[in-house]
Write a structure and sequence with these properties.
Blueprint lengths: L8 H13 L6 E4 L2 H12 L13 E3 L12 E4 L2 H10 L2 E6 L2 E3 L4 E2 L2 E4 L2 E5 L6 H7 L1 E6 L7 E2 L10 H7 L1 H4 L3 E7 L2 E7 L3 E7 L5 H6 L22 H11 L5 H4 L3
Parallel strand pairs: 1-4, 4-9, 5-10, 9-11
Antiparallel strand pairs: 2-3, 5-6, 7-8, 11-12, 12-13
The structure holds ligand F8G.
């Protein structure tokens, strides 16, 4: 039995991620990571039935299987070389992770420290530069902390709007940093000079707590009291999350109860 009184932070994050894809229409959704995958599938089953999903490897999905279940219905073939065609064409919304993200919406998944001698080598920039100059891009941060939200990223993998503008029209024309969803709050980059703006704080979280957990500033429209609370998922969404998409509770590995 699904009880609304037991809505968890992971459920709220899944709905906030779904909302980031709600207005996309028929577009290829590329969620990187567990909560993004859950949120995107939730959007497809609720707010945006036209969303195009893949299994993350080479198949377009016709149905919406539970997380990590084998695709039962397939409607197309999307190997990596074709992903690059879609990236260049533009009808794609990717939600990536962020080892660091800064006040101007630049993201780093490449390495920590000085570029010539990093203290930690991570993934490399992967598809991030191409994604951010061609596609709508959002970010998911499962552990909001001052070492993730930084004043300036060590290495720019995903390009924020100000930097894209400085690089000229080829970089800025389609740059579209849409949402940053963390385990505490939701942001966009429509603050002054394209900086982070706090859109909502999750239920039970205060604006000062988000400030405390951030190593960079962010814009608040009006006063702290004016910042809305992220919506709670509806009963229909809770049933879909808990009984259809993630009955094993894998989401709690990323956002503990
Ligand atoms: C830190 C920090 C921090 C971590 N500050 N230190 C330390 C300081 C930590 C650990 C150590 C390791 C289109 C497309 C593509 C494709 C297509 C083209 C993409 C073909 C696909 C393939 C390709 C990119 C998609 C993502 C990334 C999702 C995550 C990860 C992670 C880190 C990156 C955030 N702030 N943080 N440390 N990819 N993954 O103390 O120290 O560093 O830390 O779009 O690819 O090429 O193109 O995970 O690191 O979106 O988000 O989770 O590596 O596990 O273990 O946390 O312990 O060693 O001392 P991680 P972690 P120590 S698009």
């Amino acid at each position: 039995m699904t009880e609304p009184s037991t809505i968890t932070r992971a459920d709220v994050c899944a709905a906030a991620i779904a909302d980031a894809f709600a207005d996309d229409g028929e577009i290829f959704a590329s969620p990187m990571g567990l909560l993004p995958m859950l949120g995107v599938r939730l959007a497809r089953l609720t707010s945006n039935p036209d969303l195009v999903l893949s299994d993350g490897e080479a198949l377009f999905l016709a149905g919406v299987p539970p997380l990590f279940a084998k695709a039962d219905k397939v409607e197309g073939w999307i190997p990596f070389r074709k992903v690059f065609d879609v990236v260049a064409y533009g009808k794609r919304h990717v939600m990536m992770g962020a080892t660091q993200i800064d006040a101007h919406g630049n993201q780093n998944i490449s390495a920590i420290g000085d570029f010539s001698q990093p203290t930690r080598q991570l993934l490399g920039s992967r598809g991030a530069p191409g994604n951010t100059v061609n596609n709508r891009t959002s970010y998911w941060v499962p552990r909001h902390s001052p070492r993730v939200f930084v004043e300036a990223v060590d290495i720019v993998s995903g390009v924020g709007p100000q930097r894209a503008e400085q690089a000229g029209p080829a970089a800025s024309r389609f740059n579209d940093i849409h949402r940053v969803v963390s385990n505490l709050a939701v942001f966009d980059v429509t603050g002054p000079d394209h900086t982070l703006r706090l859109l909502s704080v999750h239920p039970g979280v205060t604006v000062p707590e988000v400030r405390e957990a951030s190593g960079c500033g962010f814009h608040v429209e009006g006063s702290d009291a004016d910042v809305p609370t992220t919506r709670e998922p509806s009963m229909e969404e809770l049933v879909i999350i808990r009984e259809v998409l993630d009955p094993q509770g894998l989401r709690f590995k990323e956002v503990p109860r």
